[in-house]
Design goal:
This protein is mainly α. Helix content is about 30%, strand content about 0%. About 45% of the residues are buried.
């Protein structure tokens, strides 16, 4: 499985140390119930897109190649960069000719574990999502017929597609499959929190352990009500009372896809894996720090119109809020070497 490195390192599910953890009532240790937060070692994949080294490498090339945009200056990595936790560090994304878009670029970290994609859930799978930005006139604005014609005459890409999907055409299906195969290798599963779950009692500080208990306590932070195990998302949609929803003509989010009144202003619960790397936060980029995020929820949101029932004042102390932030900072997998692909010549 060497082709899965470095972004899809498998979890070591060793049981060493669990017996001692269970025998001693140690508040610094993870409990058996806490182990529900351990991620499966690799994301699932569809039967018609079984990962292989050739597919992952092709997808990586496509993901980082700006020639997949109409003006040949914006790649998928332009909005989902490893330098910014596989996001872009902007409040809201920039697309075609630097057009400012209405939503933040979501991270692709652990997107392979999601059961629905994008802030409004308009795409179900990574394969279904992969070509959307290329086709969008607001984003990469690419003519797909022209793209596939260029890929087919480029010797290096032609060979890469033949190795990855032998006997299949270079088209929307194989291109989206390759990109999805690469995206499934962008995995965070070796954070201090993960090591703590596997029995290393010193992997998290006392403050971080307190923060985790507050995070999961339905009578305190109740963060886990939406940011559920193991990938810190329920794959659901919630109006969390952001100030932008109180403005004229607000972004209605999921309601535009599924016109149910309760979904007006509702957006997908994002994963919190590697969240310390992906500021600013929320779909509109309106929070610059994790403490601002926790403070927003502690107030019960900024706008109460159509807000989800779970968003209500929490009465957390300043110390408790800081402990929750400290815990979220423990969800980052340490930086690992990442090699950019060698892109084919024109």
């Amino acid at each position: 499985m060497s082709w899965m490195r470095p972004w899809a390192l498998a979890l070591c599910l060793s049981t060493l140390g669990w017996g001692a953890a269970e025998a001693v009532d140690d508040p610094q240790m993870a409990t058996p119930q806490d182990r529900q937060w351990l991620l499966p070692d690799l994301p699932p994949h569809p039967d018609d897109n079984v990962p292989s080294a050739a597919r992952v490498e092709l997808g990586k090339m496509l993901f980082f190649d700006a020639r997949l945009s109409s003006e040949r200056n914006l790649s998928c990595a332009g909005c989902h960069s490893p330098l910014y936790g596989w996001s872009d560090g902007l409040g809201t994304a920039k697309g075609f000719r630097s057009k400012v878009l209405g939503r933040a670029s979501p991270t692709i970290v652990n997107a392979g574990y999601n059961t629905i994609q994008m802030w409004d859930g308009r795409r179900a799978t990574l394969e279904h999502q992969a070509m959307g930005p290329m086709e969008s006139m607001d984003e990469m604005a690419m003519n797909l017929d022209a793209l596939f014609a260029w890929l087919a005459v480029n010797p290096a890409y032609r060979a890469a597609f033949a190795a990855a999907y032998p006997g299949e055409p270079i088209d929307k299906t194989t291109t989206s499959k390759a990109i999805a195969a690469f995206e499934r290798t962008v995995v965070s599963n070796d954070s201090p929190f993960d090591r703590w779950l596997r029995g290393d009692r010193l992997a998290m500080t006392a403050s971080q352990v307190k923060g985790f208990r507050l995070f999961t306590d339905p009578n305190k932070g109740n963060c886990a009500g939406c940011h559920q195990a193991p990938n810190f998302t329920d794959n659901g949609f919630h109006n969390i009372g952001l100030a932008s929803y109180g403005q004229e003509n607000p972004d209605v989010g999921r309601f535009a896809i599924k016109p149910v009144p309760s979904l007006k202003g509702a957006f997908k619960t994002p994963t919190l894996r590697d969240v310390a790397l992906t500021a600013p936060y929320f779909h509109d980029g309106s929070a610059t720090t994790l403490l601002e995020v926790v403070a927003h929820y502690n107030r019960g949101g900024a706008v109460r119109t159509n807000v989800s029932a779970s968003v209500k004042p929490l009465s957390l102390s300043n110390d408790e809020m800081r402990d929750i932030v400290s815990f979220m900072e423990a969800l980052t997998t340490p930086a690992r070497p990442f090699t950019l692909p060698r892109l084919p010549a024109n």
